[in-house]
Write a sequence for this structure.
């Protein structure tokens, strides 16, 4: 079922995050964690590629956090369909349970700005979002040369 939701924060916005995650329970957990760690961000949600595209067209998004595997494609499918938005400055973070070694082809792409393993936890996701939005370097379990390359 295609679904897109919008959640506003109570205080002033410092950015807008689009979370694309197909598992309802995990999306609920991510929403709660990001609300706690990043209270000044507005959170929009979609559960698949098809639901994410209209959100991208109707809102200014600063960061898109995308699960690698979605029911109607992958994070890369979505990234390839939203090239215009990436050119306009949207940052892309892939969130996945795949190992960083498995993610090397994804991480080497210029249109993917970060990777967070679900095993690293949601605090690391929040830190990565903050770092990418402020152009800082964060440590992830990705190989060091890729982490440094992404920050250049």
């Amino acid at each position: 079922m295609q679904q897109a939701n919008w959640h506003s924060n109570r205080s002033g916005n410092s950015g807008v995050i689009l979370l694309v995650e197909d598992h309802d329970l995990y999306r609920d957990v991510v929403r709660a964690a990001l609300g706690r760690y990043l209270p000044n961000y507005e959170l929009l949600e979609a559960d698949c590629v098809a639901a994410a595209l209209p959100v991208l067209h109707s809102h200014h998004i600063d960061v898109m956090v995308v699960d690698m595997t979605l029911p109607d494609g992958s994070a890369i499918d979505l990234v390839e369909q939203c090239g215009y938005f990436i050119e306009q400055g949207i940052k892309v973070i892939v969130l996945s349970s795949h190992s960083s070694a498995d993610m090397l082809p994804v991480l080497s792409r210029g249109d993917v700005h970060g990777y967070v393993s679900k095993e690293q936890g949601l605090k690391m996701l929040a830190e990565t979002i903050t770092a990418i939005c402020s152009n800082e370097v964060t440590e992830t379990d990705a190989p060091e040369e890729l982490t440094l390359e992404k920050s250049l």
Q: What stands out?
A: Residues 24-37 form the longest helix (14 residues).
